[in-house]
Amino acid sequence: MGTSDSEQQQQQPPPMGIPVAGVPVPPPRMSYQDSQPPPAVPWSTDICGCFPDHFGRFCISWWCPCYTFGQISEIVDRGSSSCGVNGAIYLLLACVTGCACCYSLIYRMKMRKQFALEGSNCQDCLLHCFCEACALTQEYQELKNRGFDLSLGWTGNAGRQDPGVVMAPVVPEGMKREM
User: Fold this and answer.
1) To 10 degrees, what angle do helices 83-96 and 101-114 make?
2) Could you tell me the superkingdom of the organism this chain comes from (predicted)?
3) What is the DSSP string of 91-150?
């Protein structure tokens, strides 16, 4: 008894598993959220917001910008670089070229992208070139207002946010059902 091709196709189970070459695969559906970047949010402090509230941080950023920059960069890099190394690179660039602001500018752009902050690359460049201490103070305060303690570094902040396994409280004499 011979079976025709149409009968054989009807008897075969539907294909399952991973598609193989030659089988067209429809492209994944793009949603509005996938295709559009998140809307930009304003900075939590103004560029001149360091007076008078954050004047101490402004002074540190003015006299020793490598220190403030190192703390910011470690958080922005999520611990993949250290505060000391980035601060030392900043200091070296400042001593050799006098243009360490170009290095800190890169981190401002990274930070703006990570947190979807308002601004543009041109604004970032102008801020870091003409008022480095104000820009660093604003970045420092932004991270602080977002819950980071920059003195702890990335590892310390990660430890604060993940307290570990929480144990159930010990109840004296066991639990009793009241009737």
Assistant:
1) 140
2) Eukaryota
3) HHHHHHTS-THHHHHHHHHHHHHHTTBS--HHHHHHHHHH-HHHHHHHHHHHHHHTT--G
Expressed as residue numbers, the domain containing 61 is 55-148
Domains: count for the chain: 1
Query: Tens digit of pLDDT for each residue in 72-88?
Result: 999 999 989 888 999 99
Q: 94 lies in a domain?
A: yes
Domain contains 105: yes
Q: What share of the chain is helix, strand, coil (3-state, %, to 5)?
A: 55, 0, 45
- Give the mean pLDDT of the chain: 79
pTM: 0.68
Residue 155 maps to a domain: no
Instruction: For residue range 131-148, list pLDDT tens digits in order.
Output: 999 999 999 999 999 999
